[in-house]
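User: Could you check the structure of this?
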Amino acid sequence: MTIEIIKPARAEVLKGVARFKELSGVSTGLPDMELPSCNRTFYNVLGFVQPKGEEEYSPFGDAVVPRIAHLSTGFGAAFVKARPGCGVLMHAHDTSESFMPVAGRWKVEWEGAEGTTGVVLDPLDFIAVPVGVQRRFECLSAPDGESEGTLFAIISGEAPVVEWSPEAVAEISRHADARHLAAEQVAS
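Assistant: Sure, the predicted structure tokens are below.
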């Protein structure tokens, strides 16, 4: 096999640079992001393209256009920032997902044969979670002098499907019901 070698212009290669300070974060869109324990900000670097079919959609809408949008790599890469105690509810993807803390300590939990278990990751530690495994992550601590930790996430596929655990669906529903009730009380 011979790989075709290309020699792009510098400007073309620089389209593949994403500077964190230039990324736009999104803190709404996913069903659990309104829960106090799930407040987080998602910074899309690469991938996570909008689904094209009528049966699938992105809850983020157009707010998560990747910073590097011209390459089709077969995976998505993003940063997540969260305060200690915040993360994501238990969910599964139809693709594998990997995590590496950049700042702070993070816990990754999953549902296994023996029940829910997990691992604590320090900066630059890495975990790859297989396809179909219910998983969640949570910031345990931020670096000294900072209010949030930063996690780097890589997910295979460019439009992965998510399925929330039954417990996550119930918690999201309870929060939505409480929010609806509070709105009704304010309106009356």
